[in-house]
Amino acid sequence: MAVSEQPEAEGGLSIHPMEQFEIAPLFGGGELGLLTITNSTMWMALMLAAVSALLILGMRGRALVPTRVQSIAEILYGFVREMVTDVLGEEGVKVFPYIFTLFIFILFSNLLGLIPYSFAVTSHIAITGVMAGLVFCTVIVLGFVKNGIGFLKMFWLGDAPLALRPVLAMIEVISFFVRPLSHSIRLAGNIMAGHAVLKVFAAFVPALSIFGIVPMALMVAITGLEVLVACVQAYIFAILTCIYLKDALQPAHH
Amino acid sequence: MEVEAATLLGKYIGAGLAAIAMGGAGIGIGQVVGSYLSGALRNPAAAKEQTAMLFMGIAFAEAMGIFGFLIAMLLMFAV
Q1: Number of folded domains in chain B?
Q2: Residues of A at the B interface (Cβ-Cβ below 8 Å)?
Q3: Average pLDDT of each block of 10 consecutive residues along chain A (254 residues)?
Q4: Is residue B1 included in any domain, yes or no?
Q5: What is the Cα–Cα distance from B71 to B78, expressed in whole angstroms?
Q6: Which residue of A64, A73, A106, B55 has the smallest Cβ count within 10 Å?
Q7: CATH number, domain containing residue B42
Q8: Residues of chain B found within 8 Å of residue A239, distances taken between Cβ atoms
Q9: Minimal Cα–Cα distance from A65 to chain B, Å?
Q10: Residue B14 falls within a domain, yes or no?
Q11: What ipTM was reported for this prediction?
């Protein structure tokens, strides 16, 4: 996003809350191409390394009495699996790897993004939009493969009065197509807003000299809140994916 | 120059107005959580299974506020 448009504030107080989301090439300057290694790429690679360390190295022992790292990996796995089977039933196990991947990706990018001077990958709609778009495409493809043309019955509510059905069908279609938009923007917006708030408060600290301790204490509290938001947003993204996939797998129960 | 200044003014006023949407999201989330809490205190045994619904309700209530936030962001940085 363009930061240059922001006017310079007077009195030494310069707040650039959106600067942290700028994508820059990691090696040298130059243009941003399709395959340029950027800070976003680097933090995604770090996220991948962290996930691999936890899930591959942590599970290497396969001990009956788990070590601390192994029990964290097991808790994560069990938590997502329970969530999937709660919503989708036993046949949902087939889509469990997909939802587990999404959950772990978002959780780790959110948490890594909270480290000072790091880069929050999920704050970009380009990233979350791809994930939400893929979920949307998966729902459509799975729905038509599993139910054939009967998938469209999802929009035609059988138990509503006949006169109301066309209106309801229109509302259902609109809400169906708004899903990828709200799905992606919810995650990116939450993460972006949280980081921007932290940056704004950070600018108050040097400006207030000794009284800067007040916004500093607030920042500590907000960081705690952001850790909660990071986990809750990963959970919400995953559970909404489950609920959307439920339409495709069991349209009768809609 | 006049037009540019007016555009800038309109941009910032519009972004501020769009931020009102977040207030609506706050009201909605408060409503959802309040209703959940009053239900959960009446019947604590059934509360645990409904936490997924709670987060879903929060997510849907929040989506509208997030749309307003997006409009504000678009006005500030994209338009």
Answers
A1: 1
A2: 1-3, 5, 18, 83, 86-87, 182, 185-186, 189-190, 192-193, 232, 235-236, 239-240, 243
A3: 44 72 80 83 93 90 85 93 90 92 95 91 92 95 89 83 88 90 89 88 87 91 92 92 88 56
A4: no
A5: 10
A6: A64
A7: 1.20.20.10
A8: 52, 55-56
A9: 28
A10: yes
A11: 0.74
Of the candidates A1, A189, A240, the beta carbon closest to that of B77 is on: A1
Helix (H) or strand (E) holding A198: helix A165-207
Q: Best mutation site among B53, B66, B69 for testing chain A: the one with the most A CBs within 10 Å?
A: B66
**Chain center to CA of A86:** 21
Rounded to two decimals, the pTM is 0.85
Please give the residue range of the domain that contains residue B33.
6-78
Residues B77, A145: Cα–Cα separation, whole Å: 42
Task: Give Cβ neighbours of residue A205 (< 8 Å, ≥ 6 apart).
Answer: A212, A215, A216, A219
Helices and strands per DSSP (H, E), number in chain B: 3, 0
Question: Is residue B41 domain-resident?
Answer: yes
**Per-residue pLDDT reduced to its tens digit, B22-69:** 899 999 999 999 999 999 999 999 888 888 888 888 888 887 887 888
